Input
Amino acid sequence: MDDRIQLWNDLAAQIAVDSIRCTTKAGSGHPTSSMSCAHLLSVLYTSHLRYDVADPESLANDRFVLSKGHAAPALYAVLKAIGAISDDQLMSLREFGSPIQGHPAPVPELPWIDVATGSLGQGLAMGLGMAFAMRLDGAPGRVWVLLGDSEAAEGSVWEAVEAAAFHEVDNLVALLDLNRLGQRGPTMHEWQADAFARRAQAYGWHTLEIDGHDVEAIDAAYAEASAADRPTFIVARTEKGHGVSFLSNQEGWHGKAVPADQEGAAIEELGGIRSIAVVPPQPEEFKPMMLGELHAENPPLIDGPVATRKAFGSTLAWLTGHRPDLVVLDGEVGNSTYTEDVEVAAPERFIELYIAEQTMVGVQIGLQALGKTAFAASFGAFMTRAADFVRMGSISRANLRLCGSHAGVSIGEDGPSQMALEDLSLFRALHGSTVLYPSDGAATVKLVTEMCDLEGISYLRTTREATPALYGPDEGFPVGGSKTLSASEHDDVTLVGAGVTLHACIEAAAALANEGITARVIDCYSVKPIDASALRSALDETRIVIVAEDHRPEGGLGDAVLDALASTGLLEGTVIKLAVTDMPGSGTAAQMRAWAGIDASAIAERARTAVSRR
Amino acid sequence: MDDRIQLWNDLAAQIAVDSIRCTTKAGSGHPTSSMSCAHLLSVLYTSHLRYDVADPESLANDRFVLSKGHAAPALYAVLKAIGAISDDQLMSLREFGSPIQGHPAPVPELPWIDVATGSLGQGLAMGLGMAFAMRLDGAPGRVWVLLGDSEAAEGSVWEAVEAAAFHEVDNLVALLDLNRLGQRGPTMHEWQADAFARRAQAYGWHTLEIDGHDVEAIDAAYAEASAADRPTFIVARTEKGHGVSFLSNQEGWHGKAVPADQEGAAIEELGGIRSIAVVPPQPEEFKPMMLGELHAENPPLIDGPVATRKAFGSTLAWLTGHRPDLVVLDGEVGNSTYTEDVEVAAPERFIELYIAEQTMVGVQIGLQALGKTAFAASFGAFMTRAADFVRMGSISRANLRLCGSHAGVSIGEDGPSQMALEDLSLFRALHGSTVLYPSDGAATVKLVTEMCDLEGISYLRTTREATPALYGPDEGFPVGGSKTLSASEHDDVTLVGAGVTLHACIEAAAALANEGITARVIDCYSVKPIDASALRSALDETRIVIVAEDHRPEGGLGDAVLDALASTGLLEGTVIKLAVTDMPGSGTAAQMRAWAGIDASAIAERARTAVSRR
Output
């Protein structure tokens, strides 16, 4: 036992020293926030985290999530100790081009990091997602999430706490590094460990309070957590900058490197530079369960009017029969988004997270990190609740398949709080994202199926009301493509729509045809990437492009079209954007579209005027 | 007492009946969710809410927030009972053009509604903001927030619970309408009132559990809450659809109107149509305190290099001396955004909300509803955490003054999790928003000062590093304007920048000048509204416009420029957008801008190529 205690303490000192070394060399970073959790990490990686360093993607492994991402130096120091990275790599912290970034990110060079952190309060939901994945696979693993005390102010932490307790996830352990000091001074509850334990208990977690620098207490707590039949919340009282007299529990040191002239003294107090190597306990042998009965039915055949949200649900339900890796998350609106069809088809792969969109997306990030193809859906308006989680998902290189229903003013009577009017903008702006917006059932079936194999963030926008069928079941809808529904060599104008506005464009074109104006109609079902080539030809050939969208004028389809046109060279022509420019109220879908000036009549009128002025 | 009981029960029945009547007429809506809270509202408005119906904006009033916004029919029914609206208005629910929308919104016709609700989990933070405003004013009022049990799954609710307890706000009462049924079935905790009471207690609230249809119990609970020295959380066990046998506690009735052929029976069970009018208790006489010692110093004079975030803080601190209504909110990053300067200048008007951006913005909505000029700041990246709150703020017609610091890859070493790269997109897409992006200290002073008087959502983007001074202290920066820094009649190309990229444009123009290429440089400090006229002239006169931004290519400055150009008529020319198109890592600010291709060298190179190809 004494040897173990010595090793734990020595490794903790090494983690602290290495955290100081790499941040001092970088000239910035968070050494003191790393030092407070050094003992917690030392005992975890030495004796409790069952982890094959050579096979970090193994589903048999335990997982560790550093929710307090600014303590990245401590994580990198541990990765060095377990032989994942070299000391040279560690010392490249924060350098341009180095994978050892200021906050952890799962770049290809670092397969030991599963998710990006650094926006606080997100790690527990991600860990919960991993715990769900393990449960689905029948894996023996456990997820350990290290939280900071400052980030406990984020409601998203307690949202995830609630969800974990409700779902009786017993393979999730939260470690709260209670170091008392936040970025600018004392935290709300400072060292009141009982404040946090009381909260976690109230939600139904098993809780423990320990001295976070007492390695024996930590070891015992981890053992107790491993044996618990509930998620366990360990509140560890620690000191920021622990082990160095001039840093320990001192204000004014958050996010500051130790100056080079004080580095030696700090390292000396910690016993000097060490190069201890440890091997974490090895995971149990394990073979993932194959979930669900797979069957090979044909895809849903939709040849009449249908709401694309309904087609989304039908397609997902069908896909569960083909993809054992498919998991679907709901934010208690499954009867609106139609993910409820999945609950019927494959109940074990439908996870109800209630009205908690941040947890829903965090869980999704965790699930996909462990190989699941995870979809999540809510009203498009409410997907904005998870904006920062989705943003971090993109930094996590996560494959997130999201669906936002109830797009635009077309939802009608419920009013603006339920209308997604900024969702295209939100999802288009994310790096590497794909944004899809089908206008009928057949397109929805194809696009949802394609989403299963897309990388990065993909977003499907669906409509509340039924829309007529436009396409047959054999029509293909490649991402990045478009459909030109009517075109001639002498078109006077081009009408671009997607989703509900495509139908308005078709109707407008018919009205214009009666007046001798021939309109080309383009279905931009792929809003990002968009079919720049088709749009370019349309501008060159018709000189007038009118884009109609049930969305704000900023960041949506209209801006996507303009960007595509600008990116293909010299602009010569007129581009008119029709969008929702005022604040809507209630009304029928048709009334709302007429009010917004995005219905067939408004589109035809703008086309008429533009053509007459040519 | 018997008379009061009779009145409370009769009014509750009237609220239930009126909720049925207006939703049946509309053909949609949430009667059953309204019926569960009818008794809670009846007792509140009859006997506890101190409220002058004729002067709803009086700061002496108590305030009511319907966090479960879908119970709007109940709120409208109460407004009818207190004489604020007529029965005809009530019956116009959900009709096009009616202020009686599907969810409550503070449209001009309804001054009795302070904030928009309908995206769940936001009302408590808004109520907390109102409670803060009352405390600042020394007002005797109390804020009553009605929550649904489904929305209690949102972490934002508990984030606000935590903040209210920490700030010892004793004039805030939460009423939880525990009706057991959510949108698609039973809630997580169904009728386990103690589950919620336990949570609220753990955070330090005074808690009560009652039968939410027992008017005497409700009355006693309200009296106890009014006397409490802490925020009070009342868990009221209720029935969805209470009072009608075929609706009461039945699944499948969420968000459904009673069919016309069942309406009569439902109303009959509730005792028929009534027209009770009640007058709420009148508020105490009260005169708001004038806060802070006002002084008339000159604005901060910044004539050297400074970080715009620092200039933001200095300006706010100065403004506290001129505007007694100014309140500043921090998300525990005040030493990064420099709102900490306000804490020094006017500590009583600086509210630390810790790392809880949703609560911060919710509180801000509440503060401005009671007349405060409220600023809130965090890293731009973390403002995305509050995206849905800001969205609802725009529906609330709220005047929100937001600042996001640490814009773009220019933050350098901390890496992508801390970089605001999608913030311009987020804020541009909001209805009626203003987006400002100063490039030096003098511009920041002016723009922050102007923000105090802007309506709607305004967003200021600031930079981490110091930037050189470009303007003198007398330069004006009107919203919607721009600055043309260098122009001639024969410019070859236009370079458009804002914030850090403006400095790169200036440097690029100098380099190009050495090669005989004359570049016009435009400072688009007002990203929305943007100076379409200056941009149009630039395109017409130079035919090549290059826009550089430290942001994603979607939804930011480049799209704003394209939109402005398209909206002013026929496009003839080339528009080139330079933006951050890949996923950044760590590095110095200069390295990151070079990597992204948005520094002076990249801008000059693109200009050179474009001019040579002309």
